[in-house]
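Deliverable D4.2, example record:
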Amino acid sequence: MGTNWRVKAALPDDLLPGALAARLVRRLEQLVARLSHWEADSALSRFNRARAGSWHGLDDDFAQVMACALDIAARSEGAFDPAIGVLVNLYGHGPRPAPHQPPGAEALADARAVSGWQRLDWDAQGQRLCQPGNCHLDLSGIAKGYGVDALAGELEAAGLRHFLVEIGGEFSARGMRPDGDPWWVELETPPQALAQGIAPLRLALCDSAVATSGDYVRGAHTLDPRSAAPVHHVLALSVIHESAMQADAWATALGVMPTPALRAHAEREELAVRCITREGSRLTEWISPALARMMD
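Output generated by the structure prediction step:
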């Protein structure tokens, strides 16, 4: 996934850390082999190369991610789109090196013509997906979150009840720390936001997950699937949800919406959101009603 992972856990006396780590590594290797667009032989990459009109049976991991991705694509009115791999590659945000200059209008038009979640034909009951032709999936806006959920599932299956999981800044927690404190996770507050008086926000994460999107670390790497243009107004946006996969996808979707639509969607979906946006030279923090109730 191009990032790091870590787990903090209260271990039973009879469970060796090395054995648990090996189990988690095996699970992550499974996910990479199924969902990575960086690995040429992954199930996702093979789908991207498949001939037009071919149907592909998906394993349970791939199927769960696609079902969630297509659901949020519809609910976000296309702000989240798992089928923009060609556009992502065109901007150099995928496995290919970044271009020296932004893509031209003709190249963008060609990429948009083969992209888009609505081109996908999905058989949910049979867990099958049809390749419409030259359509490339890119699950980087949801797969990390699913990976966090998957590792949490492995820990629970191993009998653990108190742990914190992180993959690349996406977190999920169960239970409490051994010292009786909750698992504390600070939402990402960029230095420029602190300089303008926006206070840090610390979560007591318990039986829930948090994912963050934005551009203050990697620059404008997020594309609005509807316009095929980079997004510049969201500095950092965090979503708290019981599912890290859902939090990850919604953070991606909300992060490309104009501010009024972002707030309206968050309220409609009753999402717990903290967002820091640019308005000219000024930064503005917004706390959704669902998160405000949690804070109260």
